[in-house]
Amino acid sequence: MNDVDLTNALERIATLERELSEYQRIETKLRENEEKFRLLVESTSDWIWEVDAHGNYTYVSPQVEILLGYSPAEVVGKSPFNFIPSEEIQHVGSEFKKCIENRLPIIALRNTNICKDGTLKILETNGVPFFDKKGEFAG
Q1: What φ, ψ does residue 111 adopt, rounded to 5°?
Q2: Domain span including residue 33
Q3: Pair (64, 32) in one structural domain
């Protein structure tokens, strides 16, 4: 290896070290922001949720237990329609479909939910559908 090759190699190593340091700084900042977001979501009195493209919960905040009596683990993987009385499913489903098809947020949708103890509770639901890069509904 000649001096030019060695100089180029050392410059490349220095560049990689800078890039690695920057990556580690960004990763640390991302972890800090995720922790702040988690604390915010878990401390709000609202039930925060997310569904996938199939309409199944992928995330539910701990407030679901206060509101409906179910632990988050009992809700994740299920559909919101698992917790809605059968006589209300068509109405709520059509509202969700309309919002998805028109790419509109769900605003103040009142819906009845079945609590773990069998009682019914009326909730007001708000949500924003999101779409993948191809424009397909993603959750």
Answers
A1: -150, 145
A2: 1-43
A3: no
pLDDT by residue for the chain (139 residues), tens only, comes to 677 677 888 888 888 888 888 888 889 888 888 888 777 767 788 899 999 988 899 999 999 999 999 999 999 999 999 999 999 999 998 988 888 888 889 999 999 999 999 999 999 999 988 889 998 888 8
Copy the structure tokens of residue 22.
Answer: 């920057």
**Same domain as 104, residue 60:** yes
CB neighbours of residue 83 within 10 Å: 20
b/e map of 47-79 (b: 16 or more CB within 10 Å)?
A: bebebeeeebbeebbebbbeebebebeebbeee
Residue 100 neighbours by CB under 8 Å, 6+ apart: 129, 137
The answer to whether residues 28 and 50 belong to one domain is no
**In the chain, which ranges are E strands?**
49-51, 57-60, 106-114, 120-127
- Look up the pTM and report it: 0.72
Overall number of domains in the chain: 2
DSSP 49: E
